[in-house]
Amino acid sequence: MGALLEVQHLKKYFNSPKGKVHAVDDVSFVIEQGKTMGVVGESGCGKSTLGRTIIHLQDSTDGKIIFDGKDVTNLDKKALNTLRDDMQIIFQDPYSSLNPRMTIRQTIQEPLKLSGKFEGDKLEEETERLMKLVGIEERLALSYPRELDGGRRQRVGIARALALHPKFIVCDEPVSALDVSIQAQVLNLLMDLQESEGLTYMFITHDMSVVKHISDNICVMYLGQLVETCESDELFENTLHPYSKTLLSAIPTIDIHAKKKRIPLKGEIVSPIDPKPGCRFAARCPYAIEGCHAPQQLEEVLPGHFVSCCRVREINHLE
Amino acid sequence: MKDKNEFLQVKDLVVEYTSEGKIVHAVNKVSFSLERGRTIGLVGETGAGKTSIAKAILRILPEPGGKIVGGEVFLDGEDILKIKEKGMRKLRGRKISMIFQDPMTALNPVKRVVDQIAEVVRTHNSKMSAVEATAEAIKMLEKVGIAENRVREYPHQFSGGMKQRVVIAMALACNPDLLLADEPTTALDVTIQAQVLEMINELKKDFNTAMIMITHDLGVVAEVCDDVAVVYAGEVIEYGTKEDVFDHPAHPYTKGLFGAIPDLNSHVKRLSPIEGLPPDPSDLPEGCNFSPRCPYATDECRRGEINAVEAAPGHTCRCCNIKAQEVQK
Amino acid sequence: MSRNGSAKVKKNSAGAAVFLRVVKNPMAIVGIVLVLLLCLGAILAPLLSNYSPSKVDMPSAFMSPSLKHLAGTDDLGRDIFTRLLYGSKYSIMLGVASVLAALIIGVILGSVSGYFGGQVDNIIMRILDVIQSMPSMLFAIIISAVLGAGFIQTIIALGVATVPGMARMMRANILSVREMEYIEAARSIKCSNVRIIMKHVIPNAMSPMIVTTASHISANILMATGLSYIGLGVQPPTPEWGAMLTAGRNYITTAPYMVLFPGLFICLFTLGFNLFGDALRDALDPTLKH
Is pLDDT at B120 greater than 60 in this prediction? Predict the structure, then answer.
C-alpha cells in the first residue's frame, strides 16, 4: 500500500506579543494508507497544532502537505471543501467538542445535511447507521450532550467525523479525558472502525502505553521538532534519541516488579518563542555538545528508523 | 491488618451529598488503616468518591451539601470526627496537610513563593522569627528541588511542575504526620511527573510521613504506594498491600481495570474493557454495586449487603463470588 | 451495551430545568408576582378603576388616601392610584422596548466584533467606548435633548445608552464560545461562517444575555423615570411615574402621598425585576458551568 499522506518540512509559526512561536518546526513524515501514525510528546510540543495544520483547520507557514498524491498545501475554498470530505478530526475534550444546544441526532446529521447528499428518509437511515456503527443506543438520539457520559459523547464525536466517509482522521487525544474502563471501549471502537472503514489515523497523545497499543508507526516530538520516527515496536525496543529515552523511562508502569532505570531530566522546557537554531532538547540533554546547537538533520540511522540527533550513532554505539 | 497501634484508622466512613433534593451516596462504609511512613493509594475512576474520602478526613467537605453521616476516623488514637471545628483547624496543616490537583488553588498569585511558605511555617510555629521562618522556607524549597535564586519569584513565573513542587513543599513545611495528595501529578507531563513522584518517595522516607495518594492511575500507585484500596461507587471493593492487589487481583472490577489498560510490556491486539458505566451514586443498585457490570454476577450478588472477605491474610475483597470466579477460570 | 440505568434519558429539556430551578426559589416568586401584578394592573387599568387618568376635576384636588381614592388625588383632582395603574403601561413599555432594541443591536455588534476580531472588532469597540465613557444617564439626557422629549425619543435614548453594555458582554461570551472545540468541528464539516455564527456561536452565548436583559429592564425603567423627572422623558399629561414624582415635588409638605405612592411603585417594580433577574442568573449558572 502506498502513502496516503506525506508531510514535507511543515512549519507553523504563531505571532505572539513576545515574538514568533515555533509551534511546528520543519516536520516531515509519511503515513501509509490504512495505518496509524502515533504522535507523542509532552504539552506544548506542537502535536495538536501539527494535526490541525495538516487538516487545514490552521494555515501552514511553510512546507508541503501531499494527500492522496496531490499537493494540498494551498487550496481555494472549493478545493478545501472537497478535501474536508476526506480529512476529519476527533477531539480530546468530549465536553467542549459537542454543541451543548444540539441533540445527538442534530449533531450527527449536521455534516450529512451540509453535504447535500442526504434528505428525508435517506437522512434518517444514514443517521441510524452511523449511530449503530459507533454504538450509541437509538433512545439517546434526542438527548443533549450533557445527559451523556464522556465515553458516549466521544462516540458521538466519532460518528460526526465518520459521516462524510473520510479517508484520514486526526485523533487528537481522543481518550485522555476518559476513565480507563471507558478508554478501552473507545480504543477498541477506533480500531474496529479502522478495519471496517479502511481508515488511516494520525493518533495524537501523551500517553505512551496508548500510543504503543494503537500505532503502527510513531513520531516523537519535542518543542515543535520531530526528534525520532520509526515503527512502533522498534521505538520501544530500540530507542535511539536521548529525549525519547527519557520519555520512555519516565512512564509509570503497572509492573511493580520491573527494575526501572529512570533517566533524570534537568531543568525545564525552554520557550518555543524565537528559539535558537539547533536541537531544542540540548539544554536538558545529558549528551549535549557544541554541535547540538547547529541545525539537526532527520537521518535514517537504521532502516526505517529516523532520528534527529548529531550524536545518535555515538551514543548508541552504532557502526 | 493490625489494629490499635495503627496511626490512622478510618472505620465505616459514610459521606452523603444532597443536591437538588436527591441524596448522593458518595462514600459508603469505607474502612482502611495506615501506619507512619507508609502510603496507601486510593484508586478509582472519576466520581468513585476518592476525593470525598480525603475531604471527609480533613473535614473540608463543601458546605452546604456535603455531610459526614457516619463512621470514625482515628488519628493517633483520637477520633478526629468528634473534635470541635476550632481544634480541627489546629490539626489541619499541623498534623494533616493536603495537596490538590491544581497547584494554583493553593498558591497566592501576588505573593513571593518563599514568603508563602515562611508564612505557613510561622503560623504553626509562632515562636519563630521572620528571618528564621524564611531560612526554613528556603530549606524546604531546596528539598523539593527549587534553587535559592528562584525562591523570591512569584508563582506565575514557575512552570506547572515547579508550582506543584512548591505546593508539596508548603504541605511539608509544617511537618505533617499525615499527607493527603489528591491526583498531585495528573496535570503534569510524564517527565515532570516522574520527578515529582521520585521526590515524594524521598521526602516520605526523610519525614516518615503517612500518606494517602488519590489517583486514577495504577502506574502511579505502582510507583509510590505500599498499600492499595480500590474504590468503586463509594466503597472500598478491594484492599491489601500493593503486591497482593497487583499480583493477585481478586475483585472482578480490579481485574477489569488491569485488563483495560494497554500495557507497555505485552502485545494484546484488543483491550478488554469493562462494559457499561459506574452506577449513579444517587441511585445505587441493590446488593453489589458492581453487579450490573460484572461478568460473574449471580442472583446472590444482587441482594443484601456484600461483606468483605479475605482473599488472603490481610487482603480483603468485597465480593461474594471469589471462589466461583476461580472455578469459571 | 450497558444494562444499568445511569444514563437515563431525561425528558425535560434545559429550559424546563431552568424553569424548575427558578420556581423553587422563593425570592424569584416574589419578583415574578410583583412584575405580573403590575403588568396585570397596566392591562386591566380600565376595569380596576372608574376614574379617568387624565380628566381634571378641580373640586376633588388634594384628597388624602381613603377607600374612595386609594392613593389620594393630585393637584388637579385626578386619582393617583388610577394614574399609577395607567402609568405602569408606559414604564413597562419604555423599559422592555428600549432593552429589547438594545439587545438585538448589541447581540449583532458583539457577535460580529467577537467572531471576526481584528479591525472590525477595533472599530466597533472604540465607538462603543466613546458612548460608554459617559455615564449612561448623562448620555440619555444628551440624546433626549437632541431628539426632543417624547415616548419614542425616550426609547431611543435609553436603547442607545444600553447598547455598549450588551455588545460588550456578547463579545466576551462569543470570545469564550469561539475557542470551543465544537466550533472547530463545525468548520471541519464545512459549515459556512454565517451558519457557525447562527447555529453554534450565538445560541451558546445567549444565556448570560437573558439574565442581563432582565436586570437592564429595571435599570432602564429607573432611568426613564429619571428622565421624565427632569422633564426630558414622556411629557404630561401622560401619567408617567417619573413625571408624577416631579409634579408631586411641589406639594411634598402638604400632600406627601403625591410623591410617596409613585416612589413606592417605582421601587416595587424595579425590585421585582431585579429579584427575577437574579433568580434567573442563579438558575442558569449550573448549566453555564458545563
Answer: yes
